[in-house]
Amino acid sequence: MPDGFHMTPDEFRRHGQEVVEWVAEYMERVGELPIASTVLPGDIRARLPEAAPEEPEPFAALLRDLDDVVLPGITHWQAPGWFAYFPANASGPSILAELVAAGLGAQGMLWATSPALTEIEAHVLDWLVDLLGLPPHFKTALGPGGGVIQMSASDSTHLVHVVARDRAVRGGASIADLVAYGSVQAHSSVERGARVAGFSHVRSVDVDGVYALRADALSEAIERDRAAGLVPTIVTSAVGTTGTGAVDPVAEVADVALEHGLWHHVDAAWAGSAMLCEEQRHHQAGAERADSYTFNPHKWLFTNFDCNVLWVADRAPLIATLSSLPPYLRNAASESSEVIDYRDWHVPLGRRFRALKLWWVLRSYGATGLRHHLREHIALAAELGRRVDEHPRLERVAPVSFALVCLRHVDGDDATDALAAAINARPDLCVTPSAIGDMRFVRVAVGQTHTTAVDVKRLWEAITGAA
Amino acid sequence: MPDGFHMTPDEFRRHGQEVVEWVAEYMERVGELPIASTVLPGDIRARLPEAAPEEPEPFAALLRDLDDVVLPGITHWQAPGWFAYFPANASGPSILAELVAAGLGAQGMLWATSPALTEIEAHVLDWLVDLLGLPPHFKTALGPGGGVIQMSASDSTHLVHVVARDRAVRGGASIADLVAYGSVQAHSSVERGARVAGFSHVRSVDVDGVYALRADALSEAIERDRAAGLVPTIVTSAVGTTGTGAVDPVAEVADVALEHGLWHHVDAAWAGSAMLCEEQRHHQAGAERADSYTFNPHKWLFTNFDCNVLWVADRAPLIATLSSLPPYLRNAASESSEVIDYRDWHVPLGRRFRALKLWWVLRSYGATGLRHHLREHIALAAELGRRVDEHPRLERVAPVSFALVCLRHVDGDDATDALAAAINARPDLCVTPSAIGDMRFVRVAVGQTHTTAVDVKRLWEAITGAA
What we know:
The structure is a homodimer. Helices cover 42% and strands 13% of the residues of chain A. Chain A contains 15 helices and 11 strands. In chain A, the strands form 2 sheets. The first copy, chain A, has a 7-stranded mixed beta sheet with strand order 1-7-6-5-4-2-3, sandwiched between helices. In chain A, strands 8-9-11-10 form a 4-stranded antiparallel beta sheet. In chain A, β2, α7 and β3 form a beta-alpha-beta unit. In chain A, α5 runs parallel beside α13, α6 crosses α11 and α14 packs across α15. The radius of gyration of chain A is 24 Å and the shape is globular. Chain A starts with 8 loop residues before the first helix and ends with a helix. The relative contact order of chain A is 0.14. Chains A and B meet through α1, α2, α3, α4 and α5 of A and α1, α2, α3, α4 and α5 of B.
């Protein structure tokens, strides 16, 4: 063995082609597999040996176990009948870019450690500023803001809470007095991000009849807190909540945030992708005055996890919080101030070449192709919503939002739970049973890569059959 | 176009084979490419169009730009002449597992969203507890501790600071009074993690003559802070610092931490991999009494970024800090308490199938193969250290640590900087110029996947030629 135990380039060639074939076949059969894994707790572990192998195993054994051990424990998010949670859609160009990034094995922590990683990321995120109709000062090339890829919207939301916290503390506030705000329908990552950032006061602001944050209630909460000697610090508004897809009044929140000096973070984790379509942009009117904005290409833009985008209106406070320069990271480029070093833009130091997949997706589909598919998903959801409205035993619990439909059985919670259970008992469909307060409902999120009218028709037949 | 703008499985097959071939050729030629990118700031961006493409581009254009746009901006971390920073080594099985994980596109946030992701991760990390000689209570299957994959050691270190902070606050302390400790040689992520977690007091404890934390100085600092009314909360000890590979006295730090009730975190980000070799484990004696331990398979275990492992001795405070259960994530498995949900173990909610590559690496090499390569790297570094000691114009600035050699020119800083510059002027070598205080030195980290005695010999000739 001239090169020890390593896989040689020729072996990589051969096994790589086997793996590509396995993935291609998976793409072909994912629509036929039962979507939800039915293993019981411990089933997968029971198939694994007690201890790590002492001796090398052949590649064929790894491939065999993909079918024998892994697949039974996979719930198939890429199935066309996937309507659960939010989509986590992927695509061929994105998957292959992940392979290239892994093969290059380059680190983008500093501009100098691989300039292409930093420059392509900054450039592609600048493209997206225009594609989503966001303001030019979010662009890294123009500033004072800029964009960066993070792992998840939870990370971005946590991070802006840290940055807003530090801004307040630099201004003389005590950390124990800081208050973070979001609606009662805000994603769990908002409260969690605030708590992890050390906020002990997190307010859940009332919503209106369509589950959108009430700006008047926000104002009142801020004034109450201020009167109590606390320091209102940051508010998150959602463009498309996870619960029902509610759209908070971003412009009104911007007014309140500006009036009271709060950091305003816009969480468009899922619905941000829809902003490629100009007719959807009115939903985020006011975001041009926000301090930060996050969205996940890994949800609804055919880019596999992980790929979250965070833009800030001003990168100075972000870098002030995160920058540090130990001697082993010093280099001429960083000291020239002609480059940005993304290690100063998030908690992790190391970073892989995630921009490659986003670049490849944007080029492979073109803006035209992306809009085509987003509009198709939105139209399918609208049609499903109309059918729900016309059905005597069903009702929507919220307006159809982008490509999300929330419905329930008119007979109440038990009938609604039974409806969800009947749909999920089918091997070719998956939806999420959920609740607002005590009211149960069924969440249907359209947006998986290969979901078409045929799949929505099958879902509708399952719904009406069970209702 | 029957399926819109999507790449079909057959197109994926074809383009996948092209990409596998591109990566295989990259592996073959990476040793011939100039290691350090020589582009200037803005060069890569200048090659990209001003706006995102409206229309789809053919896959051939993406592949062509890998050579034309990307490669000139890549610094080749996978080159056998890479001795800079720490290694970020990768391997064929790991790269192909990343492809499979992207192709499956499954989410492991809950056990229920794909049980294989959670169970294989927990199981493989339990294997590693034994492989690294760590205590059985770190195993998820046994508890009360457990292991989880995170993105980076910075994330893990930040997270344990948050958990220790919350434990102290639950015990009645004020966040403003908490104190975090590490040595003056601790990685920048220790101070940064503490600051991001909201610590306003971070102490850099003195080191001894070999740059290891002085436990007596730690005790004194804790007693001084306690006398001042502050609350000593967490201490990080390093097994292999980034600066010089110094090994803190983990057992003594454990004594101090236990005596004063501090959380004790062990940062073995780089050197943890060496613990597969039993003869290295004395360096981490005492880690069995730590509250948490982190190491990066993505540094020195042939597993491409990202793959960081965090073990905690007790998972209860971790989950207490991070758990939340919005209605859309409720499910029978989570409520049964028979499973773990990794979303409660870190800041992000979503997570991809990173355990697959670790599983494939452990099986492809076997423990025997991994030990073979680790011992080879360690032996190469030891031999280089001996040569430095014998050379009249060179000296080591610290003991050879695992596979890290830190050396300087006896004529001082200018001669040392010139030495580093001469090495880095060569296209086939890369080292990191660094400093301790004002003393300049050259860091040589042996550990890239394909680095052999031939490469170290070439490096030595470059060193002696310049010295």
